[in-house]
Amino acid sequence: MRKKIYLTFDDGVQEGTDEVLKVLSKNDIKASFFLVGINCFHMYMYERDQFNNKFQLLINNHLICNHTFSHALEFYSSYYENGVLINNKRISAFRDLTFNTKFFQWLLFKMNHRKCQMDNWFFRPPGRNILNDSDKNNLAILLSEIYNSHPSYPIMGWDLEWNMTFELSTFIREEVRKNHESKARFNPLQIINHTNEVLNQNVNFDRIKEKHQDVLEKIFRCPKDKIIILLHDRAFRFHPQIDFSEELDSLINKLKFLGYEFETLDKYYGQK
Ligand SMILES: [Zn+2]
Q1: Is 4-266 a CATH 3.20.20.370 domain?
Q2: Cα separation of 70 and 78, whole Å?
Q3: Rounded to whole angstroms, how far apart are CA atoms 6 and 165?
Q4: How far is the centre of ligand 1, averaged over its atoms, from the C-alpha of 71 (Å)?
Q5: How far apart are CA 66 and CA 116, in angstroms?
Q6: Separation of 10 CA from ligand 1 center, angstroms?
Q7: Mean pLDDT by 10 residues, the chain (272 residues)
Q8: How remote is the CA of residue 115 from the centroid of ligand 1, in Å?
Q9: CA of 36 to the centre of ligand 1 (A)
Q10: How far apart are CA 117 and CA 131, in angstroms?
């Protein structure tokens, strides 16, 4: 059997989604995108045409998956224990996940994509890898809620990650902390509002720390026939000096040359 690669891009739609989509289209391969509702909502509200174009490409050519609405506002430990704090109210991780489904149902309805299946779309918890045993303990509350209501809900982690830096998470956590300390009424969109600006002003934030050759070696060392790889759109966004999307292109080219096949997660268990 030819080895299968599942490229999964987390946290979109965001800066870098365009660059990733271009590389995938050039190589004629499909990937899975774990979307964060709050990022999509922000772009839908403020850059609608741009958002619509990217979203259409994702729906028509790739697989969209659920990565929660709030992405825990980057506070993962407290999120899985107590939920995310918005306007002094705690919203559980499970409600955040189901709210994201409702949000995308609404969005797809607005955009006339009424046939797009959303009932059993793949879910990945933010900041945690379900395939890692120690992470599973953290996720116990969320997982029991999911399995009680949707016993067959597909939850996906990853086998290996294209390692990157995470300065943006630190920035968002600081913003949220300041906001809670000032006791101002808190609208998470205000924080998200800054994120694209922060990424644009800090071109070296959230960039890949490994060359494509390093990722290739990790793939060779992985004993599985089906390998799920975690990537983030923003790591490949425009940079004035370095074309990071070329690194992604090189990885895909070499894997194709070596006979690997690329699939979306809905094919992972063999169903069509
Ligand atoms: Zn994420």
Answers
A1: yes
A2: 13
A3: 22
A4: 6
A5: 14
A6: 5
A7: 95 96 98 95 91 94 95 94 87 95 91 69 95 93 94 94 96 86 71 80 97 98 97 97 98 98 92 44
A8: 26
A9: 8
A10: 25
Ligand 1 centre distance from Cα of residue 125 (Å): 8
Gap from CA of 143 to ligand 1 centroid (Å): 17
The amino acid present at 58, given as its one-letter code, is L
Strand 4-12 and strand 261-262: the pairing is parallel
Q: What is the pTM of this model?
A: 0.95
Helix 37-46 vs helix 93-110: crossing angle, to nearest 10: 40
Burial class (CB in 10 A: 0-12, 13-18, 19+), 267: middle
Going from N- to C-terminal start, the domains of the chain cover: 4-266
Q: 185 phi and psi, to 5 degrees?
A: -65, 135
Q: Per-residue DSSP letters for 113-142?
A: -TT---TT--B--TT--TTSHHHHHHTHHH
Give the per-residue pLDDT at 261.
Answer: 97
CA distance 197 to 271: 41
Q: What is the pLDDT of residues 89-129, one digit of tens each?
A: 899 999 999 999 999 999 998 887 766 666 668 999 999 99
Helix (H) or strand (E) holding 256: helix 244-257
The two three-digit tokens of residue 205, written as one number: 């934030």
Torsion of CA 122, 253, 163, 232, to 10 degrees: -40
Measure 166 CA to ligand 1 centroid, in angstroms. 11
* Helix pair 188-201, 167-181: axis angle to 10 deg: 140
Q: What's the pLDDT tens digit per position in 213-234? A: 999 999 999 999 999 999 999 9
Query: What separation in Å is there between the alpha carbon of 112 and the centre of ligand 1?
Result: 27
